Structure formats: C-alpha cells, structure tokens
User: Which sequence fits this backbone?
C-alpha cells in the first residue's frame, strides 16, 4: 500500500514577503470580509477564548462586550490575541482556501464616559438610546503584530505566512 500523496501546496517552499502596502491591503480585505472573531484573554495563566462580533476602523478592531470574564481579564491584563479565519475551506476542503489572521495586541475598554464610546456605538449601527438597555463596554484592540496565513500565496511564490508589525514597535 502506498503512502497518501502530500499536496504540492504544502511542500512548496517560499520565503518571499509581500511589500508592506500589499500586506496591509490584504489584511484590510480579510477584516472587511469577516465579522466574527475569537478574542483570547488570560488571567492568572488561565486562557479564555470568546467568539465575538467585531467591527474595524483601519487595523483596529472593536467589539461589544457584555459584563463577564473577558472584560475582567482585560482589566487585569490588556494583552490579547484575536483569531479570524475564512470558513470557506471547511466546505471546499481545499488547502488553497485556508486563510486567516492571528492578531496580537493590546485591548482597552471603552465605557460610556469615554469620548470614543458614542463614535464606536455608531460603528456598530446602534442608536444612542441603545445604551440605556446595555450594561457592557466596547473593547478596542490595537494590533502590535498581525500574521496573515494565506495558502494561496504559495501559488505566486510568496510565503503562506506573512507578518505585519506595528511601525515604531
């Protein structure tokens, strides 16, 4: 019996990096095409991963957080990780459709007393009156590092994993 053949896309080697402008454009395209992520926080070495809807302004992510563990974790430890993927590969089962982002950054909680609160509320399309019924806070995630994984990049001789690092970090 012969060994199953490993897809060529997995064995193809390339270290070539995208130009910074192209990488940022691709990251922005992925962010614009998705609205659900997994926000990972940690307290006392106990990680927590929370599926949550998000909106963006540039590379900065915003989420509406209900009171709970994730908000408490962020208050104690603002370092977070965010995972975003394109679920298309689940239905196509094609390695070429594997694409996603892993974001490492700092979170900040935005309460009603913050000048950005109502601007962020608008970003989510909620009217001002919505706040009278909501006890949560917005979560702002400013990325320090974004890793783009896009297997299709290998077709053009680029590395599948591309890394954006915040300027001046």
Assistant:
């Amino acid at each position: 019996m012969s060994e199953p053949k490993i897809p060529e896309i997995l064995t193809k080697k390339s270290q070539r990096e995208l130009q910074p402008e192209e990488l940022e454009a691709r990251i922005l395209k992925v962010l614009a095409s998705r609205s659900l992520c997994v926000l990972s926080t940690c307290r006392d070495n106990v990680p927590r991963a929370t599926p949550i809807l998000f909106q963006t302004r540039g590379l900065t992510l915003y989420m509406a957080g209900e009171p709970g563990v994730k908000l408490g974790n962020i208050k104690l430890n603002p370092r977070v990780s965010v995972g975003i993927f394109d679920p298309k590969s689940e239905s196509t089962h094609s390695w070429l459709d594997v694409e996603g982002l892993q974001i490492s950054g700092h979170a900040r909680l935005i309460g009603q007393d913050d000048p950005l609160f109502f601007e962020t509320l608008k970003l989510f399309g909620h009217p001002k009156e919505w706040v009278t019924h909501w006890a949560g806070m917005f979560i702002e995630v400013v990325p320090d590092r974004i890793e783009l994984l896009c297997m299709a990049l290998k077709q053009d001789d680029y590395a599948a994993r591309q890394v954006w690092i915040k300027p001046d970090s």
